[in-house]
Design a protein that fits this description.
The complex is a heterodimer of chains A (196) and B (295). Chain A is built from 3 helices and 12 strands. With 196 residues, chain A is α+β, with helices and mostly antiparallel strands. In chain A, the strands form 3 sheets. In chain A, strands 1, 2, 3, 6, 7, 8, 9 and 12 form an 8-stranded antiparallel β-sheet that branches. Chain A has a two-stranded antiparallel sheet with strand order 4-5. In chain A, strands 10-11 form a two-stranded antiparallel sheet. In chain A, a hairpin with a 2-residue loop joins strand 8 and strand 9. The N and C termini of chain A lie far apart (61 Å). Chain B has a 6-stranded mixed β-sheet with strand order 6-7-5-1-4-10, with helices on one face. A two-stranded antiparallel sheet of chain B has the order 2-3. In chain B, helix 2 crosses helix 3. Chain B is globular. Classes of the chains: A alpha+beta (196), B alpha/beta (295). Strand 5 of chain A pairs antiparallel with strand 6 of chain B, so a sheet runs across the interface.
């Protein structure tokens, strides 16, 4: 052991006032209005499949198949599927990792904010993991968990500088509330169309 | 274990907060990402293969600049100088008075790679490149840089690491030690030092003052200097005596400075024993090593 636990405790004591419960982020923080504005699709989905391959640049990428349950923005219909691409994954014994990329688990439900890339087909989460919010049942209520795990969120001030900033959701929120906010933002002119 | 002891000690001195003394995290083979409930990902031994921490298994590696993807804002000599200082920052880490056993060389020869690549069946090169088509590469527009870390899942060995710098977030410069007065300028050493932490196997830290905290502001230079959190993390990745073995700057499959299809790597044709192959590969690299930083 390199240092005693008591030394660790002493250092902790010195740093305790500085210790932050914030979780590291890698990108500018996006508020909920910004997530909605930058997304082509805002959808409640269940991840039903994942496949890993090499892309045209020979990077390892993982494509998640998402079954749409509800659409708040974009033209996806309930029951249809969307494919979201994540950088990284593993092929055989070879892995590729990019910090800050989201990971979805098959069988779990998410609220996702997806942007279509310039190729017209590839969907990526807005703001990396900020655009993927797990949705869980808690005490009979459907709750949206904050996205942005593993990212240190920043926001640009009026002077143009980036400063630490909160994520779009600071705490778990009822899904019905979040959906209502998203639909109002869409209706207020973010340019999206609510799917029928 | 170390963190458990620290937590016990904290309770022992009567502190009511459970805030950890350290916030550093290691990269792993796991696909999971940190969450509010799990700010650091720890390997799950029950997966197949068991998840591992990522680390270099050999003490020496080498990085090349991409001649095909140069910086818009700095000369090649300036970029090399910044890279060398950033490497030295990590190489001069001491763990309880013992120098870290890591040696990263900068190759005099340039890579022609313009994107991250690892060939499992041939030569490779760790490349630093400046990227214009950031969005087309599917990266987040707000990121200054991304380091792609290729690794062996079964062992956690880092095989290759390629660093891409987002030209759309520049201009990049070399700020004075206390930061750039022009807050639009992004200090390249600030960016390189952070990304080299990923190169060596550290993930993001939740400590806002740490080099491995995941965000920075333009003009900032604080990430040039490692905090106790960064040093503690690096000493955990590479405890005394690791990585063990002979110094060989060549990647496992040999050095290859391009990312085209076909071709061959710098290696020892006709030699089947690993020791001979690695030794000859190292000899082949000697003329290309621009600088080796010494503690």
């Amino acid at each position: 052991m390199r240092s005693s636990p008591w030394l660790g405790a002493a250092i902790a004591g010195l740093l305790i006032a500085l210790a932050s419960p914030a979780h590291a982020t890698i990108s500018e923080a996006l508020s909920l209005p910004e997530l909605v504005a930058e997304a082509d699709h805002v959808v409640l989905v269940t991840c039903v499949d994942e496949r890993t391959s090499r892309d045209a640049r020979r990077r390892i990428v993982t494509d998640f198949t998402l079954r749409v349950e509800e659409a708040m923005k974009g033209g996806a219909r309930p029951g249809s599927t969307l494919t979201m691409r994540r950088l990284g994954g593993a092929l055989g014994d070879l892995g590729m990792r990019v910090e800050g990329e989201p990971h979805l688990e098959v069988g779990r439900r998410y609220l996702v904010f997806l942007r279509t890339l310039t190729d017209g087909t590839t969907l990526r989460p807005v703001g990396m993991s900020q655009g993927v919010m797990p949705v869980q049942e808690e005490a009979g209520a459907r709750m949206v968990q904050p996205g942005g795990g593993g990212m240190a969120l920043m926001q640009r001030g009026s002077d143009g500088r980036l400063r630490p900033a909160p994520a779009a959701l600071l705490h778990p929120r009822p899904y019905v509330d979040v959906r209502g906010r998203v639909e109002r933002l869409v209706a207020d002119g973010t340019g999206g169309a609510v799917a029928p | 274990m170390k963190r458990a002891w620290t937590a016990l000690a904290l309770l022992g001195v009567g502190l009511t907060s459970a805030a950890p003394a350290s916030a550093w995290c290691r990269m792993t083979t796991s696909p999971r990402q940190p969450t509010a409930a799990e700010p650091c990902i720890y390997p799950d031994p029950d997966t197949d293969p068991p998840e591992r921490f990522l680390e270099w298994e050999r003490p020496c590696s080498a990085i090349a600049l991409s001649v095909e993807a140069p910086s818009d804002d700095l000369s090649e000599a300036e970029v090399l100088g910044v890279l060398e200082r950033s490497i030295e920052t990590w190489e001069t880490v001491e763990c309880d008075g013992t120098p870290l056993g890591i040696d990263i060389a900068i190759l005099e020869e340039r890579s022609t790679c313009v994107a991250p690549l690892y060939r499992d069946d041939g030569g490779n090169v760790n490349t630093v490149m400046f990227v214009q088509d950031w969005g087309d590469r599917m990266y987040d527009p707000a990121a200054f840089a991304v380091t792609t870390v290729w690794h062996r899942r079964s062992t956690g060995e880092i095989l290759d690491a390629d660093m891409e710098v987002n030209e759309r977030r520049g201009p990049y410069g070399i700020c004075p030690p206390d930061g750039c007065s022009d807050e639009r300028i992004v200090d390249l050493e600030n960016v390189f030092t952070h990304e080299l932490g990923h190169y060596l196997g550290l993930a993001h830290s939740a400590e806002p003052e740490a080099t491995m905290f995941a965000s920075a502001v333009a003009g900032e230079t604080t990430k040039r200097t490692l905090t106790a959190d960064d040093v503690e993390g690096m000493c955990e990745v590479y405890p005394e005596g690791t990585p063990a073995g002979e110094c060989d700057y060549a990647p496992r499959g040999g050095l290859r400075l391009d990312c085209e299809e076909g071709g061959c790597a710098v290696s020892a044709p006709g030699r089947s024993d690993a020791r001979g192959r690695l030794g000859l590969a190292a000899l082949g690299l000697l003329g290309w090593v621009l600088a080796r930083r010494r503690r």
